[in-house]
Amino acid sequence: MGFSLGRFSVYFDFTFFAVTVLFLSTDAAQYWWWTFSALLLHELGHLVAAKLVGIDLVQLRFSCFGITLQRRGILSGWRQEAIVFSGGPAVNLCCAGILSVLEKPFPFLSMPREIHLIMGIFQLLPIGALDGGCLSDALLHHFFSSMTADRAGIILSAAVLVPLSWLGWLLLQGPQRNFTLLLCCGFLIFSILWEGS
Fold first, then answer.
1. For the segment 94-107, what is each residue's pLDDT rounded down to a tens digit?
2. What is the pTM of this model?
């Protein structure tokens, strides 16, 4: 299901609705609007950054794996890639900063600030398909041979994923039984293995 805005199209995969229904059935459902708006602003940051460096974007796709932007053509250099991949987290971190100022007179903005802050920082981690992983991959391939860059990318991802997975396991064992971080780490490990096969 989708619609077009000129040459740009927006597409909703059925899995997006399945995950949305699942999310709305959890205790975190009260934050669905803030989470969804943070995701949209994140992708808008990538969209604006891509326009700034002259990249033609053709589709915004919503699926169970998140929101992705598809572009026409390839990025011409690591500087362009750095700008585009940094655009989304930069918007989240700017929103977190603005919300932290507004939070003093409006305490209900505390949760949206945390959502933006966590999303911005998490996306900057140098892991696989995250924005930080794509950014580190672009930099490694610019400065090193392809084989060295690929190996360094896997080592860097593992160096971050191992302690993050351990933290996820500890959160799962805690009184709240929070499985979100461990599930995210599992998905990231799966995506790295899938891409490598």
1. 999 999 999 889 99
2. 0.78
Structure-block tokens of residue 169? 């396991």
The predicted-structure confidence for 114-123, as pLDDT tens digits, reads as follows 999 999 999 9
The half-sphere exposure of 128 on its side-chain side, counting CA atoms within 13 A, is 16
Query: Judging by beta carbons within 10 Å of its beta carbon (0-12, 13-18, 19+), is residue 190 exposed, middle or buried?
Result: exposed
Tally Cβ neighbours within 10 Å of residue 175.
Answer: 5
DSSP β-bridge partners for residue 68: 61
For residue 164, what are its two tokens? Answer: 């993050």
Largest CA-CA distance found in the chain, in angstroms, rounded: 53
Under DSSP, is residue 9 helix (H, G, I), strand (E, B) or coil?
Answer: strand
Q: Closest Cα partner for 164 from 124, 112, 136?
A: 124
Q: Specify whether the CB–CB gap between 127 and 89 falls below 8 A.
A: no
Residue of 78, 89, 85, 144 lying closest to 120 (CA atoms): 89
**Tokens 């932290």, located at residue:** 100
For the chain, give every domain's residue range.
126-197
Q: Which of 12-16, 93-97, 145-149 has the lowest mean pLDDT?
A: 12-16
The answer to whether the beta carbons of residues 62 and 13 sit under 8 Å apart is yes
